[in-house]
Amino acid sequence: LWTRGQDMVDAQLRLGVDVMTGHWEYTFGADRVQEVVENDYAGRIDFVAQNVTDADWGDRIFRPYVIREVNGVQVAVIGQSFPYTPIANPRHLIPQWSFGIRDGEMQETVRKARHEGAEVVVLLSHNGMDVDIELARRVDGIDAILGGHTHDAVPAPLPVKNPSGGTCLVTNGGSNGKFLGVLDLDFRDGAIRGYQYRLLPVFSELIDPDREMAAYIREMRQQQVTFEGETFPMEERLGEELAVSEDLLYRRGNFNGTFDQLICDALMEQVDAEIAFSPGFRWGTTVLPGMPITFEHVMDHTALTYPAVTRNEMSGRRIHQILEDVADNLFNKDPFY
Which keywords does UniProt give here (predicted)? Predict the structure, then answer.
C-alpha cells in the first residue's frame, strides 16, 4: 500500500516469476497497472489476461497467452484475471476495463494457441476453485488449470472431463506463500501420458533464506515512505506494538474468524454503529495468544487501496438482502450464475 505495490513488483523480479495474471493489482488503478506491465515487467514477466477488455470497443488490454518451450515441449499459458473485479472492487478504479468469465472467448483462445503450435495448454487462473471446475467442464483443450483466489490448498488435482471427453486437471495452490504447487506432466508422442502433482508446504523456519532476497527485504523495510502526506520509517511503523492478544486471532473461513470479529468490534466502537460488516478475505497473519499485536498485523488484514469506512442507515430488509447476496456468492450451486 505504502509503495503502490513497488515492493512486491521488485520482489517478483528477484524471485524469477515467468508469467502472471491479476486481481488486486487492478485496485491500484489502470494507469499504475499499465505502468508496471510496460516498464518493470517488460522482457521479464509476461502479464496475461484473456478476459480483460476495453469497456467501449472490446479490444483486449493484455496479451491473452504466451507460449514457452519447456523441456522441448511448446506450452501455452493463458491468463484469466478475476472475472468479478469491478463488482468485488470499486469500479471507478478501472472504469474503462471490462471483465468477466468469457468462456466463449476462452475456447477461441485455446484453439488459437493450439493452432499456433501449443502442445500443452495451461490456464493460470484467478477465477476461484468452483468457477475453474465449471470452466474445465465447458472448454475443450485445456490440460491443466492452476488457480487462485479462493486460497484453497488442494492436495491433489481434480480430473474434470471436458465436452469432448478429455481430461483437465484443476488445482489451487493455497495462498500467502504457504505452499508451492508443482505439476509435472509426462508428455510423450504428442500427448500427456501421466502426471505428478505435489503441494509442497513452505516451512520458512526450516529453509535457509536466499541472500539476495533477504537483503532486499531488509533494505525495503528500512526505507522512508510517504503516505497521505506523512513521511515515516517503514520498519519502525510496522513494528509498533498496539496490544497483546488474549486469544487466537485468525481470518480463514468463509463465515468469520476471530480477527474478523476484532475488526467488526473496532468498527462499531469507532463509528458508534450497531452492526458492522467486514468481508471475509481469508488472508492475514495469525496471532497466537500472548503475542503482541503489531501495526504490521493490522496492515496484513486491512491495508486496502480503498480503506474508507462508512456508516449508513439500513433497514432490516436491506441487511437481509446483503447477507443473502453474500451467501449466494459463496454457495450458489452454479458458479457461473
Answer: Hydrolase, Nucleotide-binding
Alpha carbons 153 and 134: distance in angstroms, whole number: 18
**Residue 140: left (phi > 0), alpha (psi -120 to 50), or beta?**
beta
Predicted TM-score (pTM) of this structure: 0.94
Grid cell in block for residue 18: 515467468
Other Cβ atoms within 10 Å of 224 Cβ, number:
10
Are residues 31 and 71 in contact, defined by beta-carbon separation less than 8 angstroms?
Answer: no
CATH architecture of the region 239-330: Alpha-Beta Complex (3.90)
Sign of the alpha-carbon torsion through 241, 243, 245, 251: negative
For the cut 90, the answer to whether the pLDDT of residue 83 exceeds it is yes
Q: Kindly provide the b/e burial profile for residues 88-98, where b requires at least 16 CB atoms within 10 angstroms of the residue's own CB.
A: ebbeebbeebb
Give per-residue burial for 280-290: e unless 16+ CB within 10 Å, then b: eebebbbbeee
Give the fold, CATH level 3, of 6-204.
Answer: Purple Acid Phosphatase; chain A, domain 2 (3.60.21)
Q: What is the identity of the amino acid at 79?
A: G
Residue spans of the domains in the chain: they are: 6-204, 239-330
Among candidates 162, 133, 156, which has minimal Cα distance to 145?
133
Dump pLDDT digits (tens) for 197-223. 999 999 988 999 999 999 999 999 999
